[in-house]
């Protein structure tokens, strides 16, 4: 029914391109293009980031973080969004992952078995979530926007992974099966009744 | 160059400038709009359907640039982001100053369409509870109009703009000419039902009244629920000057619109005691020029309009044009925003809403309506909404891997939040003045703003937070978190009051028709004219006052009075 409603909207004479095709060419030039060359992460750091993001959001019936190139988004954020202090802290956190891995398993995390990788990352996740349960002051939208890299390393890493994945084309269209133009609004409907 | 005289100059092309241009051109006047900012081409500049993955920062701030050139604009609600920061001014080009420890968030949009591109679209009528408030409380001056004076003009602008909403029959929030209301979602229905059962002070909840079309209306398409109106709307489904009034004005053949026209001041002719035109600095070439008109509508937004008057000095008006009362620039008000509460509504796990509704719920004012509060004057209303938590809940939830990913595919708990907007009392000590030492990028003297909320606004914010939490508790919410944000005035972007209407030329700037007491062919229908602030969103009232003022101006012109 919703597809039909969408067509009804289109038939109403509206010019509604699926995308604003000529919009904001300037912004689009800046995105991580195909063949993106890393600017902050070195080869080892990048391999570690790819592995960690893919443990958090693995491939299932849809591609995971690796398939959605979340590592490239993280490199963009570290290079052009983070402050110098935030970038330094993030890279130190990444190095600390290898320190923990070396202490536990005698090698950097990328060289460990998948079970070892997951085990260490789960331990880091539990520590982060305990910290997250400490109540924080209410913040407004713009304040939150400045606090994307101000938690512990794993909190920041998990946030970047989730944001990078679910705002990617794969995450948005394949995993969440969302559409940019729903075409109608229904306030309270049974789950599964509103697939386009 | 021969002097061209237009019938009317309109300064600004936002909500009131667009309405002034539409009304005046449709009545046959040749109108020139002077807009300070750039032209907007919807096909190029609207970005509502650009997916996040096409943007460098996925819609986050372009942080370094925002901090450098928009440190004030970026404090605006989420709208000043990677998509829409193009619709906000450059703070370096448009400086102003404040007192130490008294910040003011002056949020501005300088482009064709002004802030009407990025406004929140909530559209509520005032009532006599508002128009009689100053008289009743003995504060400031009385409004020179009552609800019956403006009611037909609310009808008129609503019919053109298209306001969706639900008629409720409330005396403090009169019904309008509504398009069909949007639906409430599951959580909102639970809260709506609980409120009247637990409170006997008349409080209730209705769907937001929004200038968003729920059906085809006057050649504009119904909303398609992409949900990000502040990025533009290629189907023209919400009201903005660009989507609605400017095309109507253009259709008459009587409109000339000049972008990049930064008005420096108005020209006053002491022999006729009329304004004859505007001094303009070209936004691109910085060349000084003049434009002339028989009448002038100043629609530059409340603080800018006052600035233009204060910068228009002459031997007759050494303290600013039309300022014999000394009230130009005084009585700055903005809604005290940000007391509220949020919580989770249990149950309804198998129910969701579908589509991105660009609207929320509204709880009309209930304080000092039926009974009198001891702690504060006037009252507040809440906006708010229910929603199921999305993937972002994963950031603060334990887990990783396949199960984690699969859980985030579906929606989380139902979340609900109330966010209050309180009436601000007029106070002559909240004012702006010209700061001759500081010029903007076009060499025009800027303003110094002296403004802070008082005890009454602070008391409202506290009460908003408590009552919001109590309503959530009544609705069975869990994890209720009340909050009071410490927002500076200005951030609600409902700034108003700098050239108030009134009955007495000694204590007010404008008469009952938004006409300057001192200068008969000068009209100011934007937020500057407001004598008090109500607690409801003001734009619909500005629209009605503008249409009414334009009608009056043309009738006076025809009588030869202007």
Quick tags:
heterodimer; A: 196 residues; mainly alpha; 9 helices; 56% helix; disordered N terminus; B: 562 residues; alpha/beta; FAD/NAD(P)-binding domain; seven-stranded mixed β-sheet; six-stranded antiparallel β-sheet; 12 helices
Number of helices of chain A: 9
Q: What is the fourth-level CATH superfamily of the largest domain in chain B?
A: FAD/NAD(P)-binding domain
Number of strands of chain A: 1
Apparent shape of chain A: globular
* Major sheet size, sense and barrel closure of chain B: 7 strands, mixed
Which two chains form the greatest contact, residue counts included? A-B, 73 and 81 residues
Query: Could you spell the SSE succession of chain A in H and E letters?
Result: HHHHHHHHHE
The CATH topology of the largest domain in chain B, please? FAD/NAD(P)-binding domain
Query: What percent of residues of chain A are in strands?
Result: under 5%
Structure annotation, total helices of chain B: 12
Q: Describe the oligomeric state of these chains in a short phrase.
A: heterodimer
Average pLDDT score of chain B? 97
How many domain units of chain A? 1
Describe this structure in words.
The complex is a heterodimer of chains A (196) and B (562). Chain A has 196 residues and is mainly α. Chain A has one domain. Chain A has 9 helices and 1 strand, in the order αααααααααβ. Chain A has helices at 2-11, 25-30, 43-56, 70-81, 84-105, 114-132, 141-145, 153-166, 169-175; one strand at 186-190. The N and C termini of chain A lie close together (8 Å). Chain B has 2 domains: 5-122 and 239-333 and 428-452 and 492-558, FAD/NAD(P)-binding domain (3-Layer(bba) Sandwich); 184-227 and 336-422 and 454-484. Chain B has helices at residues 15-26, 42-45, 63-69, 128-131, 133-137, 147-161, 186-198, 241-251, 302-310, 402-409, 455-474, 539-558; strands at 5-11, 31-34, 97-98, 163-164, 178-179, 206-207, 255-258, 261-269, 274-282, 288-298, 336-345, 351-354, 361-363, 380-388, 414-422, 431-439, 445-450, 478-484, 522-523. In chain B, 58% of the residues are buried. The model of chain B has no long low-confidence stretch (mean pLDDT 97). With 562 residues, chain B is of the alpha/beta class. Chain B is built from 12 helices and 19 strands. In chain B, 23% of the residues lie in helices and 20% in strands. Chain B is globular and about 80 Å long. The interface between A and B is large, with 73 and 81 residues.
